[in-house]
Amino acid sequence: MKFWLILLFLPFCGYSTHLIGGEMTYRYLGNDNFEIKMTVYRDCYNGIPPFDDPVSIGIFDSNNTVLRTLAISLT
Predict the structure, then answer these.
(1) pTM for the full predicted model
(2) Exposed/middle/buried for 43, CB within 10 Å: 0-12, 13-18, 19+?
């Protein structure tokens, strides 16, 4: 019991790293084709967080209903 009590008061160091933002744009190419560009910014000062690969993108209509979900690999 004393061992666990001592562990509670020992300092532990924790580290984390995060994606800090990004932007996504799309461009209509014609014939129901679109170009989607996504830029993700990450915190490289405190570590390098991994990217989600593949990235999941949902396409919604004006009623917020999912029309299609895309899984796009990183380039």
Answers:
(1) 0.53
(2) middle
